[in-house]
Amino acid sequence: MSLPLDRKRIGLTAGEMAYVDMGEGPPVLLLHGFPTSADLWRREAWLIAQRMRVIVPDLIGYGQSDKPVDADLTEPAQAGYVRELLDLLGVDDVAIVGHGIGGALAQMLALDAPGRVKALVLLDSACFDAWPAEGVRMIQAVLPEQETAPIVGEILRAAFALGIAHEHRIEDGVVDGYIDPWKQDPAAFFRAVRSLTGKGLAGRDAELAGLDVPALIIWGEDDPYLPSELAERLGDAIPFSTVALLPGCSHYVTEDAPQTVGPLVYEFLRLRYLGESHGHGPPTGPVRVFLERPDVGDD
Questions:
Q1: How far apart are the C-alpha atoms of 100 and 192, rounded to whole Å?
Q2: Cys-Cys crosslink for 272: which of 111, 139, 146, 214, Cβ 3.0 to 4.6 Å?
Q3: DSSP readout, 224-248?
Q4: pLDDT at residue 169 in the model
Q5: Is 1 helix (H, G, I), strand (E, B) or coil?
Q6: DSSP for residue 54
Q7: Tell me: the pLDDT tens digits for 189-221?
Q8: Rounded to whole angstroms, how far apart are CA atoms 121 and 215?
């Protein structure tokens, strides 16, 4: 079930950021990636907020946040805006859940502020120097005369069709909800995509190996943008991490398998962040997660 996420607004150095702040307890930050918004977490936010305070921003330049023409939207700058948000909200210790570029920001925040980040959940995360993906580089090369709302719509529908293995299961209007803010401001879409540089994590493998935080890495086995081999590489790089591979899932695993991803994230945070034990030790090596029987007619 999906419920709406009501945004607040807060002024940052780059402009106003729209964000959700709900629930009570130890804070959890949920970070979306390109080209989505806080609505990526429309189910998980409500689940986690049963026990924790949940903060879910639209990154600057995305969703309902400001889309300034001259703002730095590169990954290190976005990590800085998120850090600014946490500071303004008075959040010191935090667990971070990040998807795609949001996962890269989560890693940067953990590396750049040792001790502040208490737990990490990375879903099909940009990592190492393995991004931008080839498809993103192709979009970055679009000619100025092609920067129109219809072209943006075509690009994003193709991207979601490839990145969501079970699009027919999604509620009506969800994909349109991701696309509409970009179609309203096509120039903002191309500013955002051209700001994806791959900077911020390249060459930092040794620092990842020094992270002293529990980490859960969730990945769609059929991710065409960030191959699942990266999940195992990331799991090897980060101590105290567990890798969960989701068969039959593509890049947007919260859309492909919400009935699995939400409880996995919630239980991990409950056990490893809140410290509520159930008496079982963590598994070693990648874990294949059985989702459900395929629908009749599914490929």
A1: 14
A2: 214
A3: SSS-THHHHHHHHHSTTEEEEEETT
A4: 78
A5: coil
A6: E
A7: 999 999 999 999 999 999 999 999 999 999 999
A8: 6
Give the pLDDT confidence of 33-73 residue by residue, as tens digits. 999 999 999 999 999 999 999 999 999 999 999 999 999 99
Burial of 206 (0-12, 13-18, 19+ CB in 10 A): exposed
Phi, psi dihedral angles at 126 (to 5 degrees):
-60, 140
Q: What is the mean pLDDT of residues 111-139?
A: 94
DSSP 25: S
Residue 297: band (very low, low, confident or very high) from pLDDT cuts 50, 70, 90 = very low
User: CA dihedral in degrees (97, 103, 108, 113; nearest 10)?
Assistant: 0
Distance in angstroms (rounded) separating the CA atoms of residues 202 and 281: 32
| In contact, 264 and 283? CB cutoff 8 Å | no
- Cβ atoms 218, 235 nearer than 8 A: no
Cβ atoms of residues 120 and 95 within 8 Å: yes
> Would you call 281 exposed, middle or buried from its count of C-beta atoms within 10 A (0-12, 13-18, 19+)?
exposed
**Widest CA span in the chain:** 60
In CATH, which of 1.10.3720.10, 3.30.565.10, 3.40.50.1820, 3.50.50.60 is domain 8-130+198-288? 3.40.50.1820
Between residues 295 and 248, the one the model is more confident about: 248
| Cis amide linkage into residue 35, ω under 30° from 0 | yes
- Residue at 12: amino acid letter: L
Beta-carbon contacts of residue 182 (< 8 Å; ≥ 6 apart) = 35, 152, 156, 188, 189
Contact 7, 64 (CB under 8 A): yes
Burial of 207: CB neighbours in 10 Å, binned 0-12, 13-18, 19+ = middle
Q: Identify the helix (H) or strand (E) that includes residue 136.
A: helix 134-140
Helices (H), the chain: 44-48, 75-88, 101-112, 134-140, 149-163, 174-184, 186-194, 205-209, 229-237, 253-256, 258-268
